[in-house]
Amino acid sequence: MTYARPVQECNAGPDLAGEMAAALAAASIVFRDHAAYSRRLVRGAATVYKFARDGGKRSPYSRGNEYIEYYYNSTGYWDEYMWSAAWMYYATGNNSYISFATDPRLPKNAKAFFGILDFSVLSWDNKLPGATLLLSRLRMFLNPGYPYEESLRGYHNITGVNMCMYFPRFGVFNFTRGGLAQFNHGDGQPLQYAVANSFLAALYADYMESVNVPGWYCGPNFMTLNDLRSLAKSQLNYILGDNPRKMSYVVGYGKRYPRRLHHRGASTPNNGVRYSCTGGNKWRDAKGKDPHVLTGAMVGGPDKHDKFKDARISYAQNEPTLVGNAGLVAALVAITSSGRGLGVRAVDKNTMFTAVPPMFPAAPPPPATWKP
To answer: Where is the chain membrane-spanning (predicted)?
Structure first.
C-alpha cells in the first residue's frame, strides 16, 4: 500500500483507552521475564488508563466519527472500565484498581447483573463476560472478603449464569443444525463469537479444576467441567471441518477451505503494479481463487443454516479478522492438553492474587476518589 492512511487523533474515548490499558497491562505480565520492557508496558497502561478515567473525556471514541461509527460503533465504556481495572490490578498489585473494579456502583453502571442477553457474549464491543470471569478468578483463588466480596460474589454468580446460557440444552441461544452457536443471533461473522466464548468456557473449567470444584448448577442441572470443555471443543471441531459442508473455515487447514477471501493481501497478485485504494477493487470483484494462501486465517463463517458462499464480495462470511483469529488461537490453546491450565498458571507465577504493594512503583496509581 502506497496510498495515504491518515491517523486520527482521539480527544475522548474511555472505551478505546480502557481496552488499550487492558492490553498493555496483560502484555506486561507476559513479558515479566524482560523487566525493563514489562515496566514500560505498565507505564503505558497507566497513562492510557488515566486518560480513560478522565471525567472530561467520557464520550465513546466512535461517536460522531464518520470513519468509525458505521463499522466499529462502541455501545459503551463501563465494561472497559471493569476490564481495564482488573488487568491493571493483576499487572501492578495496586489495591486502588481492585477497589474501583469492585465498587458496587461499577457493575450497576455497566449493567453487569441485569441479565441482558447480549452482555453474556464476549466480543470486541462487550468485555463484560471476560471481566467478570477475570474477577471471579480472584474470588475463587484468594477470596479476599470485605470490602470486595459483594461485587466479587456478583461477578462469580453472573459468570456461572453466562456459562449456563452457552449450552444448547437450555435454549437461550440458537444453534445451527450442524451445531454452531449463534451468539450473534444469526448475523455475519458468527465464528469470532463462537471461538471467543469457547475460550471463556474452557478457561472457567480450568479455574474450577484448580480449586477442586467439579462443576456448578444451572438451575437444577449440575454441569461438569467436561461439559464446558466439550462445548468448547464442539465449536472448534465445527470450524475445523466437522460440519454439514465438511469444510474447514481455517485457511490452509484440511483439504477443503475458503479460497476467495475478502482480504487485500490474499487476493491481490504480486504483479509489480501498485494499486490505489479503489484500484484493488478489480481483484475484490474477481471470481478466481486467491493468488496467495493466507494460511491460518479463520474466515467469518457460514450463515444460520450452515450455508457458506466462497465469494470475495461476501465479507460477512469470507473476511478474516484480527479479533476472530485472536479468539481462535486462545480457544485452541485452552482446549489442548498442552495448553490446559496455562490460563491458571500465567499470573500465579508472580503471586498476583495477594494484596501486595505495586510491583512496579513507577506506574502512577489511579485517582483516589471514585468518579461515577
So the answer is: none
